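Input record (one chain):
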Amino acid sequence: MLDIKFVRENPDAVKENIKKKFQDAKLPLVDEVIEKDAKYRACLKEVEALKAARNKLSKANGPLFGQLKKCTDEAQKAELQAQIDANNAAVKADADKMAELEKEEETLSARIQEIMYTIPQMIDPSVPIGPDDTYNVEAQRFGEPVAVSYTHLRAHETDSYLVCRLLLEKKKHILRKKKKKKIR
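The corresponding structure, as predicted from the sequence alone:
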């Protein structure tokens, strides 16, 4: 799987690679993954901003609680309690939006990963480009190729039947040897 950062920074190279692999149907996936990634990153940024705001408000409540305990004036106590309640309300309001954004972030992440699994790996520059293996270049040959003869096949047999027949014949041969040993 390619790195999303590489796809984001080199969309033309990725598209050219897909064309070289003759998989033109996957070309729109590059644009889609870049678009989904931009949405995902914006969503992530917004979630992090909401978390920072929540932490800031929660941290602000600590000193307010301390002042509330020490305070003897009822008017000031009411004002401090109102401030604490306002901070808690803001935290709860942001929590709903944050949950919604996290859900969207999760779906975007899943779709991005699905697309990234579909986009093919980059071709090495030394690899010849062609639709099939006839375009391959022979780099080195070890020995002479062996011609396989299937003349021992019976007329109705395929390779799998031949293997089964040979295994059965071997088993029969082993069983005959065992019987002869028992008789002696």
